[in-house]
UniProtKB/TrEMBL annotation:
Residues 16-359 form the Orn/DAP/Arg decarboxylase 2 C-terminal domain. HAMAP family: LysA. It comes from Prevotella bivia DSM 20514. It catalyses: meso-2,6-diaminopimelate + H(+) = L-lysine + CO2. Substrate binds at R267, R303, Y307, E333, Y361. The keyword Lyase applies. Residues 39-270 form the Orn/DAP/Arg decarboxylase 2 N-terminal domain. Its EC number is 4.1.1.20. This is Diaminopimelate decarboxylase.
């Protein structure tokens, strides 16, 4: 990954830098790989990065949009994603959000409870519409990732419990304004071990076999997202292994005639194309440590503070002999730390530093805590 530092001089730090070549390369790879599998469809998970310039590029590659709020539905449709390719999940859909989704005639609601199903039916009836619905099932499959981004265990708040599938489908089929079309799953994020996805496939196969005995057919199987990226060595593994990922599903998921498989990829699409660019404010010496205090903090990139995420940090301004630093932000929280005891070429006030692999769950999760400005995302094409 290269950084046009000369062009950075006119931009206020901290900011996100998005490399459009990497994004396009990633999207081309996804397109090539899914074209090898009949019935595979990818929805980009808007939650990972909803920067309008980024969405503008993603929508060119014919992906659908995976949304979890009315705001994301608006954002994706305004960015040119067709409503008929929008799927909408979330445990707490508000009435106005359901109305909005129905008004746009989105492809499908991923419904997470029977309580929600009843409200969707009620609102659809008032609008004289039929809502297409997949049930999000909690498959109770372990994902070997951080506890805060595991979603498919019985203890998680997401989805309908395995044992309630039959009841849920029976209820859905009896509702006049609901069309039940399939099942939805999402076991977690930043998953690199294909065995976790194989475990999901095996669980889905069991569910399908069981449903078939009762004469229930599924048009859609949505397996969610979750493919991880290499945070340790981004340059060596810039493009996630989409071939292995899609081939794994093709091999282990027992599809029925005409069935579609939908994917909801977020991190693996936008993660590696983005870096948080920040400047060193001070090098502070304590009796035991040397702190590199950046002008970016947890308000700009919360992942390290929220779930101990690691982002590779590089010094863009110097190649001097390496020294050991704790790299921290300016926020008044002890958890505002990006890395401890790492070796970096000697840092000076004003040096540019990049926190890599920050294109997903970075800018979109920024906050104004401490009354700070929100970081702006710049696409390389536009600099
Ligand atoms: C339902 C659902 N689908 C897709 C995603 C995207 O996951 P990822 O960014 O790991 O691909 C998420 C992430 O939380 C999710 O909750």
């Amino acid at each position: 990954m290269t950084y046009p530092i000369e062009k950075f001089k006119d931009i206020e730090t901290p900011f996100y830098y998005y490399d459009s070549d990497i994004l396009r390369h990633t999207l081309r790879t996804i397109s090539e790989e899914i074209s090898k599998h009949i019935g595979f469809h990818v929805h980009y998970a808007i939650k990972a990065n909803a920067n309008p310039d980024v969405l503008n590029i993603i929508k060119e590659y014919n992906l659908g949009a995976d949304c979890v709020s009315g705001g994301e539905i608006e954002r994706s449709i305004n960015s040119g994603f067709p409503a008929k390719k929008v799927v909408y999940a979330g445990v707490g859909k508000a009435d106005w959000e359901i109305e909005l989704a129905l008004d746009y005639d989105i492809f499908c609601f991923n419904v997470e409870s029977l309580e929600e199903l009843a409200i969707i039916n009620e609102i659809a009836e008032k609008k004289e519409k039929i809502a297409k619905v997949c049930f999000r099932i909690n498959p109770n499959v372990v994902a070997h990732t951080h506890a805060s981004i595991t979603t498919g265990l019985a203890e998680n708040k997401f989805g309908i419990a395995l044992q309630d599938i039959h009841k849920a489908i029976k209820v859905a089929k009896a509702l006049k304004n609901i069309e039940f079309i399939g099942l939805h799953f999402h076991i977690g994020s930043q998953i690199l071990d294909m065995d976790d996805f194989i475990a999901l496939c095996n669980r889905i196969n069991e569910i399908q076999d069981d449903l078939e005995v009762k004469g229930i057919k599924l048009k859609i199987i949505n397996v969610g997202g979750g493919l991880g990226i290499d945070y340790n060595n981004p340059s060596e593994n810039l493009i996630p292994n989409f071939k292995l990922y899609f081939d794994t599903y093709a091999k282990y998921l027992q599809l029925r005639e005409g069935q579609e498989v939908h994917f909801e990829l977020g991190r693996s699409v936008t993660g590696q194309m983005g870096s948080l660019i920040t400047k060193v404010l001070y090098i502070k010496h304590s009796s035991t440590k040397k702190f590199a205090i950046l002008d970016a903090g947890m308000t700009d990139l919360v992942r390290p503070a929220l779930y101990q995420a690691h982002h590779k940090i590089i010094n863009l301004s110097s190649t001097e002999v390496k020294e050991t630093y704790d790299v921290v932000g300016p926020i008044c929280e002890s958890s505002d730390i990006f890395a401890k005891d790492i070796l970096l070429p000697k840092l000076h006030r004003g040096d540019y530093v990049a926190l890599q692999s920050a294109g997903a769950y970075g800018e979109i999760m920024a906050s104004q805590y401490n009354c700070r400005k929100l970081p702006i995302g710049y696409l390389s094409d536009k600099l």
